[in-house]
Design a protein that fits this description.
Layout lengths: L18 E8 L3 E10 L4 E11 L13 H20 L4 E6 L1 H5 L3 H12 L3 E3 L2 H13 L9 E6 L4 E6 L6 E5 L3 H8 L7 H24 L8 E5 L1 H15 L10 E3 H11 L4 H5 L6 H21 L3 E4 L4 H12 L13 H12 L4 H18 L8 H13 L11 H10 L8 H12 L11 H4 L3 H19 L8 E8 L5 E8 L7 H10 L1 H7 L2 E6 L9
Parallel strand pairs: 1-4, 4-5, 6-9, 9-11, 13-14
Antiparallel strand pairs: 1-2, 2-3, 6-7, 7-8, 10-11, 12-13
């Protein structure tokens, strides 16, 4: 007998063990590794190792493709990072990729190559999701005291701007102005010519106007936010400033401040220097010296547009945010970050409301999906809590395509989910949710389907198995009235038949439509698990009195 468990909507994990976790951030300019020890009793994490390699994924071919030699450098770096993490006894390595891989036409093939060669699965995240995790990283290092803060992170390919007060972020934006991108596209002279400098400045200002206006619109009257800066560009500028002001740089830049006026002085100095001259500045690497002027100009224009007179450095950013996000998803944080822990559920429901999903029905479907998942876990499949949550999200959103049209609404659901900015999920997780919704009816997953074909093999297998469970969950609510009160699953003695015993909510209800629909939708389940599915009503127990 496969044990029946209560219906639940949101999966939780509770683990009081001290754990070692590694996070890798595949940025446009550099690859970063951080290894941490998590103490769930606090809860907090301590950084026990760091590493960095300037790989320049953003140095692409003319057609936007990642270069072969750059991809090989990245794979070699990831292999080294893996060995460092494993030597520290890391139980898990969470890897995220951002704008360079996100925008490259061959980005997906690159991630599949990493998976094949290193058995390392990289989470490609959207610009907004990158901004959200940066926010989490900063929150793990600074106390906002419910007061608004503006966060700016200047990367190689994009700049993220966030407004938040410690609760939900008020604005999250990612703009394609990054130090590597701008240098490659607009800087050809050394030192930079006056014409190129003026054009670069105008271009940056033009692209930053919209996100800064949106951010300013969310600042309430009387509020005076503090500006917090993260990333290598801002840390490099702080280091230059510290040497100029004090003759040396502090051991930690956390909390270090400099003003807009002082930044403008640095920009004026940097624009007159050649790359080789900048390289002689204290703490300046050769790679950073090539892109520092463009990055400094992004910061100057952002501060000017935002009306910020000073900036405070925070040394935590995306990679630490990845750690915090993992802790939140595994229910290890309950205190001042607890509001962030429901980001996936809140955004899934937000998308459902946006597309006018019947939440009462979709929540029943999602619950039945988890009910079947739990009863078959370890027996028919080995998926865990992360995959369980993706099934829940797909159950909630499977019918959102009805917002477009009833005809082929499963395909519309795929498109809406894929492009709906589901925060809290990586790109591959969003793709899985979208595919699960795509295959909740009609055709089974096929290799010729582009949306399915582009998934790594592990995720194809996941979609095939979980979509089969989702189809059965939908059949259990065929009349959309909660006709079924409980389902218990069982095997025949020869293990060739899989029984679903249904208990009606109303003992007088024969649930004929639900039984018919289960029979109609069982093909995917039978094909995937090589079992014959038999659905019946539970035998009615008749009590006899003497």
């Amino acid at each position: 007998m496969v044990t029946s468990v209560p219906l639940v909507k949101i999966p939780l994990i509770s683990d009081n063990r001290e754990q070692i976790l590694a996070a890798i951030d595949m940025g446009t300019n550099s690859l970063h590794l951080v290894v941490v020890k998590i103490d769930p009793t606090l809860p907090a994490f301590t950084i026990i190792d760091r590493d960095k390699e300037t790989v320049r994924l953003g140095d692409c071919e003319a057609n936007g493709n990642l270069k072969a030699e750059v991809m090989n450098r990245a794979i070699a770096t990831l292999d080294r990072f893996q060995k460092i993490a494993k030597s520290a006894n890391a139980e898990q390595i969470i890897t995220v990729a951002t704008s360079a891989v996100r925008e490259a036409p061959n980005g997906t093939k690159f991630l599949n190559k990493i998976a094949d060669e290193l058995d390392l699965y990289v989470n490609l995240i959207s610009g907004q999701e990158e901004a959200r995790r940066i926010y989490l990283g900063v929150l793990s290092a600074m106390e906002f005291n419910n007061k608004p803060h503006v966060i700016i992170d200047i990367g190689g390919g994009s700049t993220e701007l966030i407004l938040g007060d410690g609760n939900a972020a008020r604005t999250l934006s990612s703009t394609k102005v990054g130090a590597v991108r701008l240098t490659k596209e607009f800087v050809t002279t050394d030192p930079i010519s006056k014409i190129e400098f003026a054009y670069l400045r105008a271009y940056i200002r033009g692209l930053l106007e919209r996100p800064t206006e949106e951010l300013l619109a969310n600042i309430q009257e009387g509020e005076k936010p503090k500006l917090v800066g993260t990333s290598g560009t801002i840390e490099a500028l702080a280091t230059i400033h510290a040497y100029e002001q004090f003759g040396n740089a502090p051991t930690s830049l956390a909390g270090y401040q400099f003003s807009l006026a002082e930044l403008e002085g640095l920009v004026n100095k940097l624009k007159k220097m050649s790359v080789s001259e900048r390289q002689e500045l204290p703490g300046m690497s050769q790679k950073r010296s090539e892109i520092i002027l463009a990055g400094a100009l992004v910061l100057q224009e952002a501060m000017s547009l935002l009306g910020m007179e000073s900036i405070t450095v925070c040394e935590r950013s995306l990679r630490e945010g990845v750690i915090v996000d993992w802790m939140l998803n595994h229910s290890l944080i309950y205190d001042r970050l607890r509001f962030q822990s429901s980001i996936r559920q809140r955004n899934t429901l937000k998308i459902a409301q946006k597309y006018q999903v019947n939440l009462e029905c979709s929540e029943r479907v999602a619950s039945w999906g988890l009910h079947l998942f739990d009863q078959t876990q370890g027996v028919l499949h080995e998926w865990g809590n992360d995959e369980r949550e993706l099934l829940w999200a797909a159950g909630i959103l499977h019918n959102c395509g009805l917002y477009v049209s009833h005809a082929s609404h499963h395909k519309h659901s795929y498109y809406l989910i894929r492009n709906g900015e589901l925060l809290g999920y990586s790109e591959i997780e969003i793709e899985v949710i979208a595919n699960l919704a795509r295959y909740h009816r009609k055709s089974l997953p096929k290799k010729k389907h582009e949306n399915y074909q582009n998934l790594p093999k592990k995720y194809q297998h996941m979609v095939s198995q979980l979509s089969a469970l989702l189809r059965l969950a939908i059949a259990l609510d065929r009349r959309q009235k909660g006709a079924i009160a409980d389902v218990k699953c069982d095997f025949s003695q020869n293990k060739q038949e899989f029984y679903m015993w249904l208990r009606p909510a109303n003992p007088e209800d024969d649930c004929a439509l639900e039984l018919w629909n289960l029979d109609y939708k069982k093909e995917a389940f039978e094909e995937e698990f090589a079992l014959k599915l038999i659905a019946k009503l539970e035998p009615v127990m008749v009590s006899v009195s003497f």
